[in-house]
Amino acid sequence: MLSGILNEEELMAIRFYMGDPEVAENGPYEGGTEAYNTINALMHPGSANEQDKAKEGRVIMLTGADQLKSYLALILHIYRAMEKYRQSSLDAGKEENSGSAAITFRLDRLSSLQRFEADHHRVAGFFSTCKRRFLPEYAHKKADVVMLEVERDSSVPFLDFEDIFEGCYAKPEEAEILLPFGMMIDRMVPLILSEQERRLYRDINGQSPAGKWRIYMTMEPWPEISEEKLQKFYQAVMEEGTVGRIMNCMNLLTAGKVLTGEEEVFYGTWKKQLQQYIMGTLGQQR
Question: How far from each other are the two terminal CA atoms of the chain, in whole angstroms?
């Protein structure tokens, strides 16, 4: 059990992201047990992720600049916790190679996989995977599902929730391994779907999986960005009027509406600045 290497801020951020009801009600973050939908959307480019989630009845929303500030801090806390956990696992001999011990499983949207390919094979958003094969209930919650066997090398930070929260893990059946945004897909190998998989892993519309792949993940260094540029990104992202417009865009997207061309450019530019701030902050600390 390696939870002792993580500080209280990091553990609180992880628990909130997991949807822990106690932290959602009494902790430092607002947004409830489903806030991970919004947090992850912040790390995806443009509005496509929000559109996907709207089709599944998921809510993306912010209540103001203070909540956004707290979510930025949460993202940084979780990534730093992943780095600590990865290094401690290596030191403890738990991650000695990138073979079978480092293979986990994920049911994702075909649209997400296509966007990862379009974005130079870089993964957006925290990447939830399972140690114990695929979970059918996750297929039923998404549209146009794909099955992914995820093999990571030793450069990839991660968190093992079962180990960290041993004895008080709320969802032991998930055996979740959380992987970071910014991973690179080194290569993708298509696999054959069995008839059983076609029947068992039907999506929200009752459709069989759109495909199955083994994807090989690695991590590259974050970009180095000057403190001056980081502050410019932060100020641009947090400006009060800007946050108000972003909140309006999120409300429109959650309602299933399409942004105008001008709104889409504004929304995408804002997200890019936010992501550059996150990546640049992490780059300073390596």
Answer: 25
| Residue 97 contacts residue 155 (beta carbons within 8 Å) | no
CB 230 within 8 A of CB 46: no
What 3-state class would DSSP assign to 147? strand
Segment 180-190 mean pLDDT: 92
Which of the four pLDDT bands, split at 50, 70 and 90, describes residue 98?
Answer: very low
C-alpha separations of 126 from 25, 40, 176, 179 in Å = 23, 6, 12, 6
176-179 and 159-160 beta bridge pairing: antiparallel
CA distance 99 to 87: 17
Token pair for residue 189? 């190998």
Write down the mean pLDDT value for the chain: 89
Burial zone of 228 (CB within 10 Å; 0-12 exposed, 13-18 middle, 19+ buried): exposed
CA pair distance 68, 134, nearest whole angstrom: 33
Which position has the token pair 């297929």?
139
Q: Which two tokens stand for residue 51?
A: 């559109």
Q: pTM value?
A: 0.91
DSSP string, 180-243: -TT-EEEEEEEEPPPHHHHHHS--TTSPPPS-EEEEEEE--PPPP--HHHHHHHHHHHH-HHHH
Q: In which residue are the tokens 């945004």 written?
A: 181
Span 44-95, pLDDT tens digits: 999 999 999 998 899 999 999 999 999 999 999 999 999 999 988 888 776 5
Count Cβ atoms within 10 A of the Cβ of residue 69 and give its class: 0-12 exposed, 13-18 middle, 19 or more buried. middle
Give kind and range of the element (H or E) at residue 283: helix 261-284
